[in-house]
Amino acid sequence: MAETPSARDRILDAFEELLAEQSERAATLDAVAARAGVSKGGLLYHFASKDAMVDGVLARLSAHVDADLDRMRSAPEGPVAYFIRTSVPTDNDLERSIVAVARLAQSADSRARDALSAMQRSWLSILESSVGDPLVARIIMLIGDGMYYNTALLPDTNAVLRSETDMDRVIELVKRLADS
Question: Residue ranges of the domains in the chain?
Answer without folding.
Answer: 49-179
